[in-house]
Each structure stands twice: as structure tokens, then as C-alpha cells.
Amino acid sequence: MDHSSPVFDTPRDRLPTLYEVLARKTKPPVDLFSFYIYMRDQQRSVDYLDFWLDVSQHTSLCRHYVSELRRSILVETPELEKTGSTRSSYVLDHMGEMNDPAGPSTDLTSDEKVKDQNLSAFLRQENGNSNHSPQSSLGSQRSAMRPSGDRPFPAGERIPRPSFMSRNSPTRTDSGNSPAHTVARADIRASAEKILYTYLLPGSEREVMLPQGIVHDITRDIEEEGRDDPEVFDTAKDYTFQAMERDAFPGFLRAKALGNLVPPSLFLRLVFGLLALTAALWVGFTLIFLDAPKRTRAWEILPFTIGIYLLSSHQYHLDPILALVGLSEYTFFNFSRLEEPYVRKLLTKRALMVLFVTLFVGVCVIVLFIFVPGKRL
Question: In the chain, which stretches have pLDDT less than 70?
């Protein structure tokens, strides 16, 4: 299945939103890849992002299947365009162009909601569940909930890989729907079950913590009612989006839009900065009490500058030299270019501020230790 390349909007004069990051409308260091690394290494909750990405991929799979089915019907039976025969063909003909919105379903436009409802209605009807209308299933509050028993993770299944990690997924084989189909109806069912068994059932391999009511509703829809349309996961997807937006995304912006270092680098800078500053203080006091000449004390500039620079970088989570040359660290000693214009401008301003603080403190300390009168003990 082909994935469209990221579409970047005109340069924004603000920080991006989570919607824009998930929709691949941002560039490093605030792109989707950087957010995934942050969720994995720092937030320790990458399963939530993987769940969201797999649900989005499931929705894309459904849309791709329906689009192919519509094209095949128009090619094989062009007379349907004139007769408008069945309800299924009517739904297909009026589906329109289908995008992959990255935000919660509550933020969709009315036109996008209608398209999603038509998509799910068609899949339910094709699957023999036409008694569920899109109006009743979209965001409905079900009162009857019955927890189902734990089902083991299917043997041989692998953890789903996030769709953005590879832009060109392998072409799916056809299972008899149509010679032109690269997505089979069984693939949609398998995708829905994989999401359920991987992320939602209690004790699953990568269980995400969702309200029990949401989990029970999804389990019932898939296991008892046989549904696999995208609306099954709407509530869980919205909940996950809001949780990431509230708990993880602010920290991501602080780490990537206001800084350019990762925790291991910050720790090393703290350690080496304290060591350099300790050595500078020890040498400085030693030279003072040995009444060394000022030209000898001038060598203190080196350890003081290194120590203050490293400690300033740790304090502000920013290496000013790296920021000025346009680099940001995404994993330990691995760097990416600053391609997001507003973020680069913001980091450049902060880098100049950190350099000024480092220079000011360094000059004050160095002048003190060089020009203070010496006294040999």
C-alpha cells in the first residue's frame, strides 16, 4: 500500500500542534519521527503512540480497500453509473475522496464525518451487520457492557510496526476479491483483531491503559458483533490523542523546541562540567596562595570556560554551538538538522542568550581569580 509523502504547510510563526505532528506537517526536530523517539526514550509510553498509529493505519487500510472496490466496480460494470442500482453502489459512488485526518474525530469537519460514517456503514453492511447505523455507532454511549474472557495473542503474530517508519509497505496479496485488489477484506478483519489482541485485551503484550468501558465496547463490537470498521476504535483513538496531547506533547515541545539535548548528554555535561569547575577552583586557589604571576593564572580561563559552558548547557538543556550550526540531538550523539523554521529561530535566540550568560559568568569568575592579590602561605 502506497503512503503519500508528507505535505508541509507554509512556514508557521508558532510552535506546531500535536495534530500537525501526527499529520506529518512538521519538520525536524518536531516531526513525527522525533516524537516517536521521545515517546520511546523519555516518556516511556510509546505503546500509546503505536496504538494510535496502528488505528490510523487500519482506517487507511479500510479507505484503500473501499477506494479500490469502487474503482473496480466502475471499471467492470460501468452501467452502474447510469442505473444507480443498489445501496452498496450508491454508498461507494458518494464516498468522495477520502483523506486520513490525524486529529480526533471530534475535530473533523461535517464533510469528513459524513465520509467516515459512509465508510463504516458500507463495511458493516458488506460484513452482514447492516442493522447498525452510522448515527448510532459514532460516539454512542452504550450502557450494556459485558467483559469478555482473555484471548491469547495469536501464535506467530508480531508487534505491529508504526506505519510512518516505512513509507513503502509491501504489496498485499489478493485473496479472491478481485484481481486488481491489493487489500483483501480479510486483511481489514485481521488488522482489527491484531489491534485488539495487541493493545486492548487485559494482559496483552503491549496493553495500553484505557477506561474499561471503552475496552469492553471495542471487544464486544469485534468479537460478538463481528465489526471491523474504523468507527469501532474512534473513542479509544480520541482518548489516546487527548492523553498524548495533555501528558506527553508539552514535554516534547520543551525538549525539542526549547532545547537540543537528550538526558544522557545532559548527565554527561553535568558530570564533566562539575569536574572542570572543581579543577578550575582548585587550580585558581592554588595559584593565589602560591602568589603566581597573572600571566600564569591566565591559564585558568580554559577550565573555567569549559566548566561554565557545560553547566550552562545542562541548566538550559541547550548546547548553543550545536544550535547555532543547526543541529539537534535526537538520540545520544546522533543529530538531525533543524529544518522547522520557527524552531530554528527560537533555538538560535536561546543559544545567543546562553552564550551571553556563559560569557558574563565566565568573565566575572576569571577576572576575580586572575586579578585578586596573591599571598604565598
Answer: 1-10, 73-181
For residues 239 and 55, is the Cβ–Cβ distance under 8 A? no
The confidence score (pLDDT) of residue 260 equals 96
pLDDT at 46: 96
CB half-sphere exposure, 362, CA atoms < 13 A: 21
pLDDT value of residue 137: 35
Say whether 330 sits in a helix, a strand or coil. Answer: strand
Degrees to nearest 5, angle at CA 240 with 208 and 26: 120
What is the rounded distance in angstroms from the CA atom of residue 190 to the CA atom of residue 185?
Answer: 9
Cα distances (angstroms) measured from residue 347 to each of 174, 340, 350, 370: 50, 11, 5, 34
Burial annotation 71-98 (CB, 10 A radius, 16+ → b, else e): ebbeeeeeebeeeeeeebbebbeebeeb
19: its cell numbers: 495534530
What residues contact 286, with CB distance under 8 A and at least 6 apart? none
Single out the residue of 55, 21, 26 nearest to residue 39, CA to CA: 21
* C-alpha torsion angle, residues 272, 277, 279, 285 (rounded to 10): 180
Q: Could you give phi then psi for residue 196, rounded to 5 degrees?
A: -60, -50
pLDDT of residue 185: 84
Number of other residues whose CB lies within 10 A of the CB of residue 238? 18
Q: Tell me, what DSSP letter sits at residue 89?
A: H
Residues 6+ apart with CB under 8 A from 51: 195, 199, 206, 208, 236, 240
Residues 6+ apart with CB under 8 A from 244: 18, 39, 48, 49, 52
- CA-to-CA dists, residue 140 to 7, 115, 123, 162, 329, angstroms: 33, 18, 18, 28, 44
pTM, entire model:
0.76
CA distance 33 to 194: 23
Query: For residue 104, is the peptide bond before it cis, meaning its omega torsion is within 30 degrees of 0?
Result: no
